[in-house]
Amino acid sequence: MTTLDVPQTDRPAGVIHDIGYQRYDGPRLGRRHLLGGLYLHSLRTAFGLGRTFKAKIFPWLIVGVVGVVAAVLIAVRAQIGEAPLDYAEFPEALSVLIIFFCAIVAPELVSRDLHSGVLPLYFARPLHRSDYALVKLAALISATFLTVGVPLTVMFAGAAFMVDGIGAVWDELGDFLPALGYVAVHAVVYSVLALLVASLVRRRAVAAGAIVGAFLLTTPVVVVLSVLPYEAATQLAWLASPVTLVGGIGDWAFEASSDFDVDPYGPLYGLVGVAMVVAGTLLLLARYRKVAAK
Asked: What confidence category does residue 13 fall into, taking pLDDT thresholds of 50, 70 and 90?
């Protein structure tokens, strides 16, 4: 059979199907809404919302423990008539739990994206490299602050109903607000360090261990410096660890009742804390400029 003998049909060689794709003619919300969407998504991710049950276990376990501690303190105060733990002592007593919360959440926020290689998809949109890093940091700070700040606020609300007179409530408020600021210091310092470490490690489990190590491995340095036979060395020893650094800031700025005695070096602790946050943030931004360049 020759090509001339091939039977001819009236069917077209190809068909174009209209499956409903249309151009988007709506409003372009821009970069500000993009940042807000990324922040809300990251904040939900911090608590495992919209994720599997497994992703909710560890963050909500810590949230539950902090909530139970606050409830117990309220109940004890209702029974004995006085607070067993001052407001400023609350975040200090829970500092280990705050560290573990940051160690769990920070890898979920950034290590997962590094491991799955989705950062080019983020940066293909009108999203700056610095925007991504700063939004993730803001989400971690917010999640950490809420984890401790909300139970602390519940403690204040419970105490406000137990005391007599508006003057006593005002006194409680005067103790509560500085403690809330102390919670913010914990959230900012711990989050900056945790997110910086997590941004360097692609494996979430390894990143979590590295974060805990970054906080706890500096403790022996503090111990060695604190036993030196010099008063100044003892008072400056707390600068060697982020945990004790925050404790020193609390003793100086918020008059937190603690084991830390940093007089007369309190302003130095404040300056070192600010320098640590600024340096950590700049290193985080530099890290994401390097990631984007690959």
From this structure: low
